[in-house]
Amino acid sequence: MSSEVVFDFDYLTRLEDSSRKLEASPQERFEMMLKAQREVDTYLEQLNLDHPMGWVIPPNETQVQSDLGQDKLVQLGPGQVQLGPGQAQSGPGQAQSGPGQAQSGPGQAQSGPGQAQSGPGQAQSGPGQALLDQEPHETEPLPIPEHGIGIDKVLRDFSRIGDQMEREGHPGHMAYVPGNSTAPAAIGDFLAASFNPYSLNVASCRRAVKMQQVIVQWVGRLFGYPDTCAGNLTSGGTVATMVAMATARDKKVPSSQDYHRCVLYVSELTHDGVAKCLSTLGMREAVVRKVPVDDRYRMDVNLLRKFIENDVQSNLLPFLVVATTGTTDVGSVDPVPAIRAVATQYNMWLHVDACYGGFFVLCNSAKHLFEGVETADSIAVDPHKGLYAPFGTGLVLVRNGASLRDSNTRHHGSYMQDQRTNPEDWNPEDLTFEQSAHFRAPRVWLPLQLYGVATFRDALQEKLELAKYLYLRLKCQPHIQVAEPVLSTVLFRIPGASDNINRSLLEEISADGRFFVSTTTVKGTLYLRACIFCYRTHRQHLDVFINKVKKAIVKMELEWEFCYAG
Ligand SMILES: Cc1ncc(COP(=O)(O)O)c(C=O)c1O
Q1: pLDDT tens digit sequence for 155-171
Q2: How many Å apart are CA 363 and CA 438, to the nearest integer?
Q3: Which residue from 171, 195, 536, 552 could staple onto 541, CB 3.0 to 4.6 Å apart?
Q4: pTM of this prediction?
Q5: What is the position in ligand 1's atom list of the atom closest to the CA of 239?
């Protein structure tokens, strides 16, 4: 019996017509992009102190203008400033805001209490008001439709994200490690997604692989690594750390039978992603030793050595120590040379977590902090922090590239058997556990080409200077204890006050949504923490911030007395 195959050509034509929509003509593409660009512009215009960040309840009465006013600066020498206590006079060009910053200029949207404010695609009618008015379902993105809807509606819905997020890139965002992204990075992403090469294999796209290698080798050289290092762009610092830790495990741990004996040493300020990586790597039963930090918040190397000696005596297997050059909480830098010496003595892998602090190595004033990093076995660093790339851009480096390759090269599937690569070509897919991955290189490469390294160096150096500036200005305020920053993170608190009172200070400072700082608890003490990292944050914003802190303290003092009296 033969079955007759009937082919429906009309049906196929209908499917073809429908699927051709995905090809988008140049005109369609151009119009879509133009409209998207307008939404982006509308959003970017809101990244200034006139616009509170969407996550907080807006103020009743606060106006940035009324916040302006600051202590008088005393010139010490070229480029140095010190502040006279109790001086409250503005110097020229100090507390004033420039166009698009703390103060609205002509043509800029300005909103005051009760003033309606709206732009294309914006959902707010007053500062943050629409957020409060919204029905819960309105905060949900549109559900997935069976048939496509117009770009205008889609963009309107998308732009509402801006109403609800912390506004990464806002100059007042100083919580956690604020993310930033530049226009060229977005264009790099556009090109990456449009060309869409398979960028992890030389045979698929040599040039894409090379672009990535140019970045990896450049970063390696920044830290003093030899050309025999290898690495990869990853989705972030945690994944970069995991790739490095997998290599450490493969080099230092004889077999999975030993996992229960393995010991990982971190400091009490090491990012918690490190321990998470250990369990993702299947080493949940390994021991994690948290080494206390010294009075400069750096890993105490004497205690590290003692812990290791004890562990060796107990037949445990110290295999990995993680030093951090730029702790997230404090910005402190562990003494890498001393940790290296201990690691070498005990045949351990040394990994350096430079995710937050790493790119400060570009800055002359911070270079010395990275001494010894060139001796680490591996490094994780985040271009989505220090190079202002969009989230989703980490980088792992392994000093001896062959170790990274050994750890990740497995037999390729037979469907790949026709690929011809030279033995000297190192495919990124053999240097990580990822296979198909976003072509991340252009989001880093394109901004560096366009602006040059010097622009990034200056931006980062400015953040270091701003941290110093904030420190100096807070230091001469009464009722403020402030820690001298190592990098761009400043910790401060009301000394002698309870954690609750210090939390109230945080609430007071962030009440109108113009500034977003967080708290952290270090060695049992709660601090407010300002991480100055956004490239839009400049001195005039800190002047407003400092004034806000001063006002909050005055208010808190009254409440304090009330507390004591009560
Ligand atoms: C020191 C440090 N390590 C690791 C991480 C984690 O990096 P990511 O969020 O890119 O995974 C961070 C994030 O802030 C960090 O500051």
Answers
A1: 999 888 877 677 889 99
A2: 30
A3: 171
A4: 0.86
A5: 11
